[in-house]
Structures are given as structure tokens and as C-alpha cells.
Protein 1
Amino acid sequence: MIRSDLVVRGRRVVRAGSVGPAAVHARDGRIVAVTPWNEVPSGVAVVDAGERFLTAGFVDAHVHVNEPGRTDWEGYASATAAAAAGGVTTIVDMPLNGRPPLTEPGAGRARVRALAGVARVDVALWGGVVSADPSALPGLAAFGVAGVKCFLCPSGVEEFPHVDEPALDAALPVLRALGLPLLAHAESPAVLGRAEQALPAGADPRAYATWLASRPAAAEAEAVETLVRLCRRHRAHVHVVHVSGRETLALVAAAKAEGLPVTAETCPHYLAFAAEEIADGATAFKCAPPLRERAHREALRSALDDGTLDLVASDHSPCPPAMKDLAGGDFRKAWGGIAGLQLLLPATLTFARPPAAEPCDVARWLAEAPARLAGLAGRKGTLAPGCDADFAIWSEEGRTVSAGGLFHRHPVTPWAGRRLAGTIHQTWLRGRLVYDAERGFPDHPHGRFLAVSRRPAEPAPN
């Protein structure tokens, strides 16, 4: 007999690569069984999703929360409210924007204190690599980071310097031994420098073409070539974040075909927007790498289909409106980041494979694969016994994005006014309702810090 205290069921439950009727049984916040739709014990609370889709709660593996230190940009209370409203039950916070950056365990403990009592969803943390000295990495692993992030070009944050190939050459064997992945912002500073020098004198900083020319796709490709070379040398897991260019896709595909542990992600904004459509002065669209031409967008969509790209993450990176220079429209001055955490599902559903992606693909890109990347497989990302009872109940019903309906701290986003398919109706975290489209947030915050424990890898082959 199944002993459960909650059953969430529906006619369109997405699990194990299929969609169909099922009942998901939970006890004490964990899934204990998945049965046919009509197998429900008497006396147990039942939530019926009906004809709406029921998936595991989504995992956003690329979020910039910025707390402590830059909480006026974003914070755990506002970011996790946006996550819950978007069906995201776990975020993985990037290390660089908080003060101090998460490059040692003390900074991690400060973030755990900051999120306690205010986080509406669960939070895991990425650490950072900022020097050629890898001695801090074992301490970060013991603290419970999900992996470490680096920049191959200046990050835009003074406290988080970029690293070069010798620094990564020192870090990767240590990371491999610890079982931690390396996440990399891949743009070559040499290529960026040449592109900057090649800009014509007096290039209009309000022109989107100026910003695009300053960050060519070749910069991403050259940096990924370096990462693949290092991955081949050390057989350490390398993950390329926010892929924007089609040249990069061939490099990632070739590395995978070679059997190297290389994975990659893109973001909804790279799947949706194209450079040809961005007006001069429209700095809400500024991000790095930049939004590229339609040919790149179409290549990214195809790469999701064929598995070259593993997942989609928001790269939610908000800032105070003044830092976007919305009035002046200067792309050179504006902060580079797009706010989209709450819209991860509808934006991906709409633009990954227009007019709408398949629910099984959405579950793979937004839940299963990011949970695996973050070391949370078996706990998050799937509707299976032993996993947390995290659920997103959603439909393909379309809505126009209103900035006033977004819960992140500053409602500046290029998604405002866009018609997107996909509406989140309810979000459940560990068996508790944390968001309802009609009632908002019915409970006090009870998100937790998720310390990740990785299994050390076998020694690399000589």
C-alpha cells in the first residue's frame, strides 16, 4: 500500500519522455510513487491538474541574484518570488554579482544567511574561479557549491576578474578530482580587443550595430576552442553558458562526438530575438554575448533539437533602471543583462520551436538537464520516486507580458508587451503550494539552500 499525504494528478503528466494520465504520490515533501491516474488512496489530499500539463518544477541553472552587496539590483526575496511565479522551484545563483563574490566558503555562508526565511524556492550556488591558484576549490566543494564559474573575458564586475588558459589549466585537474563542472563565459579577450580597435571612429553608441560589432561571434568560438582543448587535456566537465553563435555549435557538437565531457546551454532571448529587429537605443536588449542575427537564432533552435545544446537557462541579470540608460540609449554605457527568470517557461515554449515546443522537450531543457548539470539529479527535475515533490502545473494558454505582473525587483525587460504561449497556474515546492495564479503566494517562504555533494571522479587517463 502506498503511504502518501498528497496526490497531484492529471491527464497530461510529463515524465520519462512521454505525456499521459498519471498520479504522483508524495509524503513528507518527497515523491513516493507514480501510479495510474485513478489509483488514489482514500483520505489523501488530491490536487487535480485536469487537462493542464503537470511537470517537475523547473530548475534555472543561470540566475544572478546579487545578494548580499547589490540587493538594490535584485535579491533572494524578489528573485525567488519571480521564480515561483514562473514554475521554477530551484535556482542556481551565479557567484559574481554579490559582495563578496563566492570564491571562498565565507561568501557562501553569507548568501545562505541572506536567503534564509525569504526564499520562496530552493537555491543552490555556483562558486567562482578568479585566479591561477586552485587552492580554494576543495573548500568550495566541501561547502556544497554545485560547480564553479569563470569568465574568459572581463566580467564587468571588478571583484570577479577573468582568467586565462594557464589558470584554467591549473584549475581543471582539481575540479575533475572534486567532481565539479566548470561553467565558462566564453568570449576571447583578444578577439574582443581587435573588434574594439576595428570600430570606426565616431561609431554611434546608440546603434545596435555598434554593440554587435564590438562582440563578434568569433570571440565566442575562439574561447570555446580553448575550453575544448583544455577539456581534452584534463577530461574535466566543461559547460559553456549562454551560447549565442552558430560557429560555437559546431565546436560543441564535435567535442561531444569525440566523447569529451562538454555541455552547453542557451537562453530564451537568444532563441527569440534577432539583431535585425532591435531598434537603435533599445538598451533593454543589451546582453553579452549580444543578440545576434537571425541565422544564429535559427541555428540555436536546431541545436536544441539535435541535442548539441543541452538546456535552456534564463541568465536572469537585472539591474536598477538607471544602469540600463533607457533614456540615453547608449549601448556602450548600459549594463548588459536581460531579466527573464519568471518567463523561462513561456519564452522557451514559444521560441525554441515556433509556434510551440513539445512538453517533453520543455521538461528536458528546463528541468531534467539543468538538475543534472547542478548535481541535483535524483532530487530535482523529474517526477520519480525519491525526488522532491516539486511540481509546475501549466497550460499553453497565451498571455501578453506586462511589466507590472513581474515579481523581480526591477520590471525592465525586453519581454514586456510580447505575446507568449504558456501560463503557470500553480507551483509546488516539496509538497507545498508556493504560487497560485489566482491567489498569488499562499504561504510564507520556505525555500532552502541546497548543498551539493559530488562524487570525486576517477583519475584522468594519461
Protein 2
Amino acid sequence: MVTPAVNGLAFRVLVVDDEPTSREVLRLGLERQNCDTMTAHDAASAIALLSEQQFHAVVTDKNMPGTEHPTEGGLDVIKYAKESNPACAVVMVTDFSTVDSAIEAMRLGAFDYLAKPVRAEEIKAKLARILSYQQTLNPANTIASHNSLRAKFLNILEEQKGEEQCLSPATKAALLQVAQDSIDSFIHERRAWENIILEQREALSQIAGWAEQMQEMAPKGSTEEDFLNKIISESSRRL
């Protein structure tokens, strides 16, 4: 993977896990992807770091010492990360690789999830997905849109809990993947439009700059000066 960066800054990730081995595996996996990585051993230390520094993403275990939740500190980390920095994407690490555990993590506010044991290729895939969202003009708004769209889908799944309507784990997993892919496609299309807007903005800025240079050479009170003033004014308004 190309060195991840957002607006020229290294992609910063906080790893939170009370198990030293799991924490080290996650840290090494992320650093192999050239992330600027820090670690915390429980929810309290993670919250302290989140209050002092900005991270693009947090990868946190769910079951560990917490502040409000004694044995599910990952929930406290999610809550604080979302409140302190809405642009931060939280990945919940779960002990079971069932689709229900993934859905639970997402309902709690996680952007995505990883199932133990975590594999290197999974870290790479999750990182690429987060990076695509972080590289938009307004990551906080983009992630909020993602969560809103996904919440609507999860609500539909919730309605299928009746005995006669119960969906199999395989069906849930397939539907969840379709939903994730659809949301990602929508966000990628929005990012493409943002790139077009940025290109147009840069072009307008150049036009305004050229008009200002020409204005200095135009005779005072002339038609040319008036025309250039209109170009500069309209370009500034649209910028």
C-alpha cells in the first residue's frame, strides 16, 4: 500500500487493547502499512490520548477495563472518540467472527469491525476503506452520512427478528456486505464530484489571478478595466 496520508499528514491510528500480544500484533500490522501508530492498554488511557491528540482512526478491543463500562471499555472509547472528533473512524475488534457481533459493534457506533484473530490482509482492507472516507473534503460529515445510511439498513435487519422472518447468518452477512458496498460506492462517487469541484476552484483562482495582472495594465476607467473587474468579482464570489 502507498504510504497513507490525509492532506499530506501521516495517517494516525490509536490501538487500544488490554492484551499485550494482541495490541502488539495490531500495532505491527498498522505500522507495516506506514501508519503513525500509538497504543493504549485500557479505555482510560485511550481517552486521555484522545483528549490530547487527533487521530484519523482508532482500533479498539471491546472487552477490556473501561470507565463507564467496567468490562466493555471499547464502548467508552467509541463514545469519547465520536464526541471529541467526529471525523475519527473507530474499528471495533470482536472476539467472535459472527455477523451478529459485527452488527452489534456497528450499532454501538463503530465504523467497521475486525474479528479475532486479526489477519494482516484484513487490517490492510479496513485501512484502505477508512482512508477513502478520510480523504473527502469533510470527513466528519462523510462518516456521519455513512453511519446514517447504514443505520437505516440495520433497522431493516432488526425488523426481521420474528421466527418466521428470521434470516440466516449467511444471508445477513451477504446483505451487510451489499449494504457496505453500496454505501462505499455512493461515498466514492461523492469524492469524485468533490475532486471536480476542487479542480474548478483552482481554475477559477488562476483566472482571477490573471485578471488582476491584466487589470494593472488596463487604462483607468476603460471598458477593459470594467470587464476585468467583473471577472475578478464573479470569480471571488464563486470561490
Protein 3
Amino acid sequence: MKMKHNKKRNSAFIYEVTIRELAKAIHEGDVKKKKAIIKLIREAFNSNTLLGKDLDLYKSILETRGVDKYTAEKIMFQSRVQKGSIDHKRLFAEQSELIETLNREISPEVFSNFVPNYKDLATIFQIFHPKTKTKNRVLFEGYMIDKMLLSEKERQPDMKPIDNLTYKTFVSKFNEKYSEALLQEQKSLLSKFIGSFSDNSIELKIYLNEEIPRLLQSVLKSKKMSEIKADEEMSLKTDKVIDILKETTERKIDKALVYDILKIQNLVKEIERCP
């Protein structure tokens, strides 16, 4: 499975939510809070701290605009090399100290501030993390490099906070059509499909790269079940499902594909329940 993004160990995320808390303090005229946050930012993210150095590596990717592919790849490579040279125990300690101070002196709600470029911050976190699978890292890097090639005018606006209306509508239509309660894996698929409109499907592609082989393996195993082997129609339907899964790499990732995977996830769950 894809490694979970730990936002409190993402130096750029901590910086962004703190900056947004500062903006709120200024807007509300809270001078005391404003001074406290400015002091924290200056102490935590200066050029002598590992937090500051780590933040610069995120910014080197995030703030690059309109370069050629060779330059973008070079920046990506050098950023990863420098990230690898950071003393991660010391960085962890600095992050922990700042998190504790923000919780104690400002508010735990700081970490709930909306960050428009959250997807990009999470993507870079995955690129930098040593435990990210090679295939996933290549997909993440490709996504960010494509963004680095675009000029400011060409870039799509960062995502905006939305409610769950789109998700609920999609789920409702699926349940109405198939009269089924959603499984956990179906919820994961749907949430990534809804989110795919803001991140060029990167999270969805990674999820499918892991979910489709799992489904295929389960359906292939089911062919050995006596019930299926003895029923010609069931055997033919199983072969059809196998063909659908094998053809997914050639298909466009759209609503039709998602519906197919949702149905196969139900089928696999039924298979797993068989003795």
C-alpha cells in the first residue's frame, strides 16, 4: 500500500498552516498572537535550522516555474540528494519542538488551517521519503516535474475547500444503481476519484496500480473453486472479469472505469467470503 502522508512531519505543511494562522491573527487584530507567531517562524525556519533547510528544499520544487524539462529534472534530483543528507533525527526533534510550541502557545487548531497546495506538499513529502516505492516515486516526480514546466499563467488554480456534496452524489448514484452498501476499498477508490480532478489523477493512478493486481489475483484464484469450475456460465463470466482487469492499463481513467472496478471489488469481497 502507498505510504500515508504524515502532515506533521512535513516541514512545508507546518510552515504553511503557521503562515495562515498569522494571517488570521492580523485580520482579527490580535497583536499579541501576531507577535508570538512571527517570533516562532523566525526562530524555527531561519537558515541555521534544519526546518529552514528542509523548507527550502520543498520550495525549490514548489516555486519553480516555466523551466525546461532538463532543468526541472535537475532541480528534482538535487533536492532529493540534499534531502538525503539532512540529519533526520535532528529534523524530527525540531519538528516535534515546534509542534509542541504551536499546540501550547498558539492553538492545536493551527493544523486544521486549509492549505490550497496541500496535494503538492503531500506529493513532495512522498518523493523525499525513503520508504516510498520506486514506481510511486516516479509517478510523483513526473507529476511535479510537469507542474514545474508550466508558467504561472498556465498553472491551474490550487484546489479550493469543498464540502462532501460531489462525493455524496457519486456514492448515491452508485448505490441507487447497484443497491449495495459501500465497502471500505470502494470508499477509498471513490474518494481518490473525486480528488483526481485536482491532482491530475496521481493519487488515483497509484491506488489503481496496487488495487487492480490485488483484484486480479483474487479473481484468478477463484477459477479453481469447485462451484465456478462446475458452472460453465460462471466460468465464462469470471474470464470476462479477468479480461476487464487486464485491459484496465489501456483504458482511460474515467467514471466508466471506476464503476467497473467498484463492481469487481464487490465480486472479490463475495469470493473472499466463500469457504
Protein 4
Amino acid sequence: MRLRTVFFDWGGTLAQIPPQLNRPELVWDSTCSGFDIRRTEAEIHQALVEVDRSLGPQIYRYVGRTREYWGLYDGAMMDRLDIQFRRDEIEAAVQAKFEDPSVVQLFPETWSVLDRLRAQGYPLGVISNHHDGLLDVLRFHGLDQVFKSVTYSQEVGAEKPSSAVFERALKRAGCSPDEALHVGDSLRADVEGAEACGLSAVWLNRDGRPGVTTARTIRTLNELVPIVEQLAGPGKG
């Protein structure tokens, strides 16, 4: 294998995603409470299900206009929750919680591992099931200058494990599948998706979750560098 590019998933791999970003019910519940609006968890959950069903797929049409999309989304949420007053303030409060890049923290070893790989001459890339907001988070953490390529699902119009996402990333990085390695925490999206497209894959299984794969498995990113050096073969690093 002539390894040319190391790709990384984002959330759960390089960065810890806080619960409120994975569970929007928490954001809406705390926001409603802050405005003295009483809605049950079941009501909020049902509203999210209905809005996701009607508006979820439309996010792909709003590349570069994601803020506009979330305005539509939040408006639909307030309609379903029968919120008629202070809607602009509520929307701003909800978005402030979702868009705050400081709530997303890098894993302790992220920077050191990325620096070691870059020092050895490996171009690095990100492949993530994310939207435009990923670019802001990368800038906040100073990672926008680290990665040679960033590919995310909203711009592609599909999510991992779809081959379209990996194919876009490979084209952007200028390498073939057999020259690339993808590292991620999802067995299905990151490992099986990458391998189906011909990339090598490493499963980052921090919590020792059950799963069957022939891919190399690690518990921390610190274990990745020796694997990269092994895949690259003699004369690299």
C-alpha cells in the first residue's frame, strides 16, 4: 500500500460532541424553560420527529445557506409547539446553543496525533456527516489550516456510508482508494463505508463496543501512528 492521505471522521473521533448537540430535545427543553414555556419532553420529541420528516432532507439544498435552513426548521418547530410569542428571541437562543463552537471539545490526544502525522508528511482530510457549521468549528479550534481537504455530507447530498461521500473526498484529495486510510468511530459509516469504496479503515472504538470487523481496531488515537507507519511501508515516516 502506498499511503498518501489519512482521512478522519469528526464527531466521536477527533472531537467530543456534547449531549445537547446529539439530543436536540435538550436544547429545546432548556430554551422553552428559559422563556417560561411549558412543553413536555414527549411534545418536543414528537415535534422534532415531524419536522425532521418534512424538512430533514431539504438541508442538502441549503449549502452555504445553512442558517436560512435552520430558520425554517426552528419556525416549523415553534409552529408545532404552538409558540406564538417572542419567536425571534427563541430562535436566536436555540441557534446560539447549537452554533457555539466552544462546546465541542477535541479529545486530549487529537492535536499531538495530527501533528505527528503531518510531521511525517501525510496530507490529512476530514470526512464527516455534518453541515456547513463544521467549517466554523474547525476554524475555532485552529484546524482549518491542518486539513488539506474537508468533505461533509451536506455538500455532497448524502451521508456516510454512502460511496458518494468517500468518492468526493478522494477526488478532492487527489488520491485513489488504495492510497487512503479512513479513521472513524462508527463501524457502519466509517469502517464498512470506507472499505466498500476500497479505502483501508481503522475503527476507533474508545468504549470497547461490541462489533465484528477485520479492520484494525484502536481504543485511542495514540495507537494510530504505528498503524499508519506500518501501512506506509519502508522509507516513509
